[in-house]
Amino acid sequence: MPHRLVPTALPAGQNPQSVSTADFNGDGRPDLMVANQGNGPGGGVSVLLGNGDGTFQSPVHYATGSNTQHAVVGDVNGDGHPDLISANENSNDVSVLLGNGDGSFQTAVTGPAGSLPLGLAAGDGFEVRLFDDEQDPLTVMKWKETLDFLEDATDRCEDVANVLEGVVVKHA
To answer: pTM for the complete prediction?
Structure first.
């Protein structure tokens, strides 16, 4: 019988904007990070640790700046643990939450990012590029659209890899 995926809604936070996957606690299972646009207790970023069977633990919320639009995962301080970086539109800043390696994160350190940071990109070496130097809104929107497309494609590839990994483990 073919393997069937059943869509499942997961609690995340207020007005989720983007999702990234990484192994935040070092157990070899994919975990989720959700950027939440809402302010207050459900805003910021939420981390849902994976159980390894396609389900996730309840979200743990971390405060960031105001109106988080986008967040990425990268090893900002080079310690081998995934860190979270968020672009916060209303507070015009970026927040960095250093990972502890056990699935938890330190309190956000926030710094200015210019007017209305709309996106982030983590590349080789996990450098972060902010769209605060660009004055033309159309250029910013084009870059954001391109990066969103690339992130979506990467997420889909990760989803396929996760399904294949589950099939291999199941039939090993």
So the answer is: 0.67
